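REQUEST ID: PR-0412
SUBMITTED BY: lab tech R.K.
PRIORITY: routine
TASK: structure prediction, single protein chain
INPUT:
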Amino acid sequence: MSDLKKEVLAFLRENPVMSAAINGHPAPISTVLLYTISDDFVINFAVRSDSFKAKALNQNPQMSISNWKLNEMSIQATGQVSRVTDGDRVEHILDKLSESVGKLDGFWPPVLQFSESDYQVFELKISWMRKLDLTRKNIHDNGKVFADII
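STATUS: complete
OUTPUT:
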């Protein structure tokens, strides 16, 4: 794995909350989700089973995400989601989501309030990802603004 991919993966693991855009009906849905990410950039997250997000993702699996930290970096990505239905995997992913909360000072997500049956768990397979370096005072310094990751 390249140094750039390692840097982005480490950033995404240390900042496990993403903004997501979902193709809802009749209007788009924007939301914030807690996630985990694997070494091969597969993202797992959970949504309430009775939510608009769950309904929209089951109808149209396309999703865009972003994650950023001031003066560090911004990540933008798109991909396709699929629902995780294997009970052992669902339980494992929910446990990993609970563990990821420890990286967020003062964050208490609703995902910890409900039983496994209240949630649908999804995996997002990234088809495109790019990074914007936010450490520079001017994003136009040094030529290319974005670096392609995937």
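NOTES: Residues 3-148 form a domain with the Pnp Oxidase; Chain A fold (CATH 2.30.110.10).
REVIEWED BY: pending
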